[in-house]
Hints:
The protein has 346 residues and is mainly beta. The protein contains two helices and 29 strands. The chain has a single domain, classed as Beta-galactosidase, Chain A, domain 5. Strands 11-12-13-14-29-23-22-17-20 form a nine-stranded antiparallel β-sheet. The two termini are 31 Å apart.
Amino acid sequence: xxxxxxxxxxxxxxxxxxxxxxxxxxxxxxxxxxxxxxxxxxxxxxxxxxxxxxxxxxxxxxxxxxxxxxxxxxxxxxxxxxxxxxxxxxxxxxxxxxxxxxxxxxxxxxxxxxxxxxxxxxxxxxxxxxxxxxxxxxxxxxxxxxxxxxxxxxxxxxxxxxxxxxxxxxxxxxxxxxxxxxxxxxxxxxxxxxxxxxxxxxxxxxxxxxxxxxxxxxxxxxxxxxxxxxxxxxxxxxxxxxxxxxxxxxxxxxxxxxxxxxxxxxxxxxxxxxxxxxxxxxxxxxxxxxxxxxxxxxxxxxxxxxxxxxxxxxxxxxxxxxxxxxxxxxxxxxxxxxxxxxxxxx
Length: 346
């Protein structure tokens, strides 16, 4: 494990990069800014392929153009409609940062905090954060831990834990942008995706779930079998068009099960990534707002050059009572696990 200086934030905090390497030479690089994944270098043939988008220093992660690259998002990932909710008879108004809605915990959510880092093994780093009462409008002090583990089986495990002293909604995710062909390889439209879901949630013009639960069959949202991302992405209405929807996973919530498989069919050899999770949903986002700005090594990240597969509770669950519970109460513990498994395809 290597610990490397990653730059100083605009308010004077030093940040670091933590590099984990397994016996195969796979590298997982993490930063304490946003507890973010910065690099995932997978050994492919005689070289390593970096399959996530990011920046070379903390200044990029602090910038306005950072679309949550690799970061932990919370207190509530995804969107809360109208940036408000009612809990135990009291209404809370949040900081809106996506029109009149709140996205990924607000303008200064967990993705923009410097976390406390602890190396707990050569292949594990734990990040801790205290989220104070009233932060971005949320009630209660929340104490969060996220543990990243890199296994010798080329698996990245992310374990989330949280407790609170006051009832509050919580929904944590990692917002990595994946392109299995690696840096500078263009779009992901030739990647194939399979999602273990029979249903998805349609959204309104503000990307807030309508509350409906719709079958994926006979629609561009049907990803039950491997489908090229370019096949249907432009058939999905939006501004811009594309995937940015929660899929309801075909498994029991709380049990770790297969959520999705992403395969690159363009580069040789082909690389696949399985996503396993204890969460009930997964947000499929096809990089609809990437616009060609500069990232690691001077690489440009053009429109639809990466895809996000964000394991999560249902968006806006705090306002839609038929969605799974998102409330954490004192004496309870929030737990969540997601695993990314990388394989070379024959």
